[in-house]
Amino acid sequence: MKKHWWHKATIYQIYPKSFMDSNGDGIGDLRGIINKLDYLQKLGITAVWLSPVYQSPMDDNGYDISDYEAIAEIFGDMADMEELLDEAQKRGIRIIMDLVVNHTSDEHAWFVEARQNPDSPKRDYYIWRDEPNALVSTFSGSAWEYDEASGQYYLHLFSKKQPDLNWENEELRQKIYDMMNCWIDKGVAGFRMDVIDLIGKIPDQEITGNGPKLHDYLKEMHQASLLNKDLLTVGETWGATPEIAKQYSNPDNQELSMVFQFEHIGLLFKPDSPKWDYAKELDVAALKRIFTKWQTELELGQGWNSLFWNNHDLPRVLSSWGNTGPYREKSAKALAILLHLMRGTPYIYQGEEIGMTNYPFADLSQIEDIESINYAKEALEKGQSMESIMDSIRQIGRDNARTPMQWTDGHQAGFSSAEKTWLPVHPNHEDINVEAALANPDSIFYTYQKLVALRKEEDWLIDGDFELLETADKVFAYQRTTGDKSYLVVVNLSDQAQPFEFEVSSKETIISNTQEVKVLESKTLQAWDAFCIALD
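Request: output the structure for the sequence above.
Response:
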């Protein structure tokens, strides 16, 4: 298998509205990111995945783009963007743009023209029908919106202000590839492709994900924009299986570098239940099954994995599956060690490396996320109590990941000088913040820093085979083996002591949050113990 820079990379996701505010308006911006590049360099990350900073009315926080080649005023301007690319490069950090091409904003010039003039060629850039069918929006309700001016319905699989693009239109596809090439020429290192598995939709057959032309479009995109360029491309693919992931990420297919698969994220929810009906605790046995499947079935050379716990659409993993009380730091390290020593490219979401947690939202007035607001409205109409609705939003609402980054224990956690920030700062910033983490040599930050360094240095993290070990239910243990080298990774995913027996002749420690020698001698893992050792 040909090695690329992203095989040894760790990617850091920045949600720009919440990372760092440089001008005191309560909203993060590009200059704020530039001011914090030294921090990211200290962490050691290879690249930043930047959530959208394009011009947008911000109906869905930038995932509704009105101009792909302009920067939203709240974030700065194109000069700031070019300076970010330049300053990041000086520090050995690449920038990966978020590519949102399943839909645009209804304020995009294409859609404005399509709406005003049904005879315009731009009309066919979108999907129009005389009658709606049963397709529903991810953000609740019908996926069709009636346009009175032209007497037709347009498709929107997300907000009604996010009309879906018609990828069957060749002229539209070419405009998208031209736009990608414009960004590549500016020096971006690749693209994270938002809901890319939806671009092959056939709405009349109610096919949305993994449509029959999807891979043709991706191959065409690769030829038009990505061919012979060492760029990272990662697709957001909620419906992917290992077989489908091979189609995307097998180098011979010339489509994408890797995909985000979400099978493990499905464990946040009760089986066969609506999204907002969350699971009360992690099913560790299922987590082991899912990760093992992806580690073993997506074989080296035939595809590549991405590894993540968090992103801008998900609750904080510590609040879902870790311990936010006495074991906050230890459980955060345990979850990091478990994930980062598997095969794939790891992603760190801002604040994960200091152990940020879900926000204790009091009521709906504190919620910004359109998905959460629409859910609350629908649930209230069905007679659900506001307290049970808020309970679900506090557990799995998307705003949990979007509260401002906690830099210090001071005013607005050092994120902004404003009196009011766009989302409230978590009250626990007095204890959980970057300044405190950097001052404590045993903090979560330094565990992440070491994991990032290991990824760059150790070839077994790329090449090693994966084997799950038989253990107690709450213990996740696996071996990575390459040639004559073998490594044992052991994690107790619980607040209780667990038995663990393994005969080890070598005790060279790679990384640990505990005294692993004591564990091996006593054959007992204490709460959230986690370590990796090299075996003879």
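The chain has 17 helices and 20 strands.
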